[in-house]
Amino acid sequence: MEDYSKLSSLAISDSGFIFNPLNGDSFTLNPTAKLILKNLKENKSKSEILDIITEKFDVDKNDAEVDFDNFISQLSMYKLV
Q: Which pTM value belongs to this model?
C-alpha cells in the first residue's frame, strides 16, 4: 500500500489549484485529479476512489484505474508519494 501521508500538507482550492507549503510548488488539477487527491487525503482506498470516479464521471472501472494510476505516477514524479 502506498504512503500518501505527504499529501496532508497540500492545500487544495475549489478550483483545483494546489499548493505545497513545504517547497512552494503549485499545480493545477483537472476534475478527476482533484477528486483523487481529495479522497487520498481522506485516507480512502484505491477501490473506494475508483468507485467514486466511475459514479461521478460515468466511466468504466478500467478507465478510472488508468486515470488513477497515471495520477499517482505524476505525484511520484514530484515526490509527493
A: 0.86
